[in-house]
Amino acid sequence: MSIHEGFLELAAASIDFELDEYERAELDRHLAGCDECRRTVTGYRDDANAIAYEAGPGLAPARSDAILAAALRPSRRRPPVGLVAAIAVVAVLGAGLLAVGLGVVRLPDDPLVAVMPHRPVPSSIGPSSEPTTPPSQPAGPTSQPGGETPGPGVGLLPVRGPGQELGTSILMAAGLEHDLFVSIPAADGTVLTRLDSSGRAEPGWPIRIPGASPCGLLLPVDDGSIRAVCHADDLASELGEPSVRGFAFDAGGRLLTGWPVELPCCFTGRVIGDDLIVAAHQAAVDVVEEGQATGSAWVVVVAADGTVRAGVQVPFAQNCCGDGWAIGPDGVAYGTIHHDTETSISSELAAVGLDGLQDGFPVVIDGDVSGPAFDAAGRIHVTAVPQARGRAQTFVLDGDGRPVPTGSSQLEITATSDWWGAGDSHPAAPLVGADGTTFVIDTTGDTTVAGLSPSGQLMDGWPYRSSLTLQDTGFCPAGDTGCGGLLAAPAIGPDNVLYLLRAAATSAAGGSIVAVGPDGRVVSSWPVGLRRPGSEFWSIVVAADSQAYALAIEPEPNGSHSATILSISPDSAVRYRATILEP
Amino acid sequence: MELPPPTPPELDATSVRGRAGIEAFVVSAYDLHHAEIFGFLARATRDPVLAEDLLEDTYRRLTEQARDGSASLEVRAWLYRAATSLVIGRSRGRSTAPSPETANHERAGEVELALAGLSAEARLALLLSGEGFRGEEIAAAIDRPVAATRALLCRARARVRVRRELFAEQGR
Lengths: 583, 172
Known about the structure:
Distance between the termini of chain A: 90 Å
Number of strands of chain B: 0
Oligomer: heterodimer
Largest sheet of chain B: none
Helix content of chain A: 10-25%
Radius of gyration of chain B: 17 Å
Mean pLDDT of chain B: 79
Mean pLDDT of chain A: 80
Structural class of chain B: mainly alpha
Number of helices of chain B: 7
Structural class of chain A: mainly beta
Shape of chain A: globular
Strand content of chain B: under 5%
Order of helices and strands of chain B: HHHHHHH
Shape of chain B: elongated
Radius of gyration of chain A: 28 Å
């Protein structure tokens, strides 16, 4: 073998294998001085491309069907056309319209009706021991715009205030150390605390964030720190001006250097690594003509040191953004924009990253489409209904906007909004577990939940039905006709256990939480109910260790309401109760 | 604007349970990948009729894997490995020349003609490379050591280069 042949072999090998540094350097040096070798290497690359781009022959559709049928024998049964795979993509106005076959999922003839007797907690929820361990470390001296410094305080908890009016603004977020972060709006700011596994405040907590009320995002970071985005009372709220502020505190309650930061509105965000990513939008200041951009959306990334990077702004024609948007695990803001006409409704799923509108988006989906939810792989799940109370269907897309054939066929239930009260409403986003297990909820009449496997099939034992309605939250003063609120959001545990917060069955009882297992049956020893009449569960979060934290709003003798956190183990045992708000 | 066809999002095989789940999984894998696997088989065997048989065998193996609860997490890669194994199994002890009724040299492109003179393994290795698999994956698919696969690929590329240069000189 000549020296040239040896290097040509190396060049050929480099197409399929990584060369080590020495090989690469030697090859480059040789090629630099050998014109003939360079021509041959170029030819190798050309050959490789030609082989890759040469298309093989196609297969006749009839043969294709026959081959699939034969491959599936001896079961001799195919799912209905369109059940899994018949997602046709056609061009509509520069975006993909998903036209999906009408496969039918047959429901069990005798679905499980799971209304179980309430299992009261051991004692009535009442004033608890105050989780106010005195802070051992003072907050750092960093000041925020506005003059005051977030800092610890004795006697911050429980916060004094009316539970019904403030309850929807109480946020809980489970940390990784069996801890729970809680933000509570207070008269002069927000109280932020970190509770340990017994419900007591960790050293350094609680702290008070002056001039920030309420917080709309509470996002724990793997290193034990927390990011919070809160209204900033002192900032201008004119169009385009920042009106919220982001905070970062370490595990001991100390404000991190570089924070707080001023952010554009609003409260769609996610933590990835130790970056805070928020979706921002603003309306156009000037009056615009129909079809013109009426606003724009972009993402903002705030690094752990408080450095803010704003992405490219994407103009939108209508109804952008706010509700129905969420940040995916890839840091891209996904959201649904609805186009209503008198006869039809269609929706566009948009994706906005740091570099602007993402390739492959927007994707047009026929019908009224929910906001997005994500599995651990970053696939985007939405629920669509063709018209009000129409049969729901889930769609799954990859990060490039391409359909993934794991959406469902049309279900025998609809998907309802999580909003009650005045104004437009759209289907609620599906609940999606890490592996893609998906729950679609219908609250028309009874509560019905379809549990779908990661491949989009109705799972054995589902749908789950309960005659109890989901709890509504919020507070409408008498005579306020434009008022509304959200149904208490369900949650999924890491093992795909679904937690539903339900209204009381009678006026003599309180609300309850039911845990439904992946088999569609109520988990043994659940539900957990509140004993006091008029008491309600308004929110729940589930930690990575499957511990659930539920917020109970309970009537007090003075006519107002308190707010109490219950830590509930998977076996329904209540580990602690911590009252965080008292009237 | 027509969106590009869905390409290889990997299926989630971790939850394939029950008859309906298995069928749905196989149907999904078929709809996603059968066209490219058939094209690969037809190019590898140069015999579309044989390729149809091998496509059926490939997906039958996938069905069996799913029924056994051992479906791979990387379905596309698994399908190529299975198809490669089937082609190698068929080629052993047989001529790789296509049957007269299926060989159509007049219609074949010069790339296919350049590949035609290679052994079944070498052709498979180059086609797998064209499908985006790296050398180590190709070695696993054709069940040969990595070093031997590297030598095989180098020789194959050199032969293809010579043949395509020849075609170019002949004005093809």
